[in-house]
Amino acid sequence: MMVGGPNFRVAKAKKAFAGIAESSGY
């Protein structure tokens, strides 16, 4: 299910990056 297209993908990537940074204590 694609909601918002590219914008949604960017938001998802940002969220994933934030989660990775947080878990590594960056």
Set down the secondary structure blueprint:
Layout: H1 6-23
Question: Helicity range of the residues?
Answer: 55-70%
User: What does the radius of gyration come to?
Assistant: 11 Å
Low-confidence stretches: none
What order do the SSEs take from the amino end to the carboxyl end, as H and E? Answer: H
What distance lies between the first and last C-alpha atoms, to the nearest angstrom?
Answer: 32 Å
Q: Estimate what percentage of residues fall within beta strands.
A: under 5%
How many discrete structural domains? 1
Shape: rod-shaped
Largest sheet: none
Overall pLDDT confidence: 76
Q: Number of DSSP helices? A: 1
Class based on secondary structure composition and strand pairing: mainly alpha
Number of beta-strand segments: 0
Question: How would you summarize what this structure contains?
Answer:
With 26 residues, the chain is mainly alpha-helical.
Give a written overview of the molecule:
This protein is mainly alpha-helical. It has one domain (1-26). Helices cover 69% and strands 0% of the residues. The protein is rod-shaped. The mean pLDDT is 76.
Fill in the keyword field for this structure.
26 residues; mainly alpha; 1 helix; rod-shaped
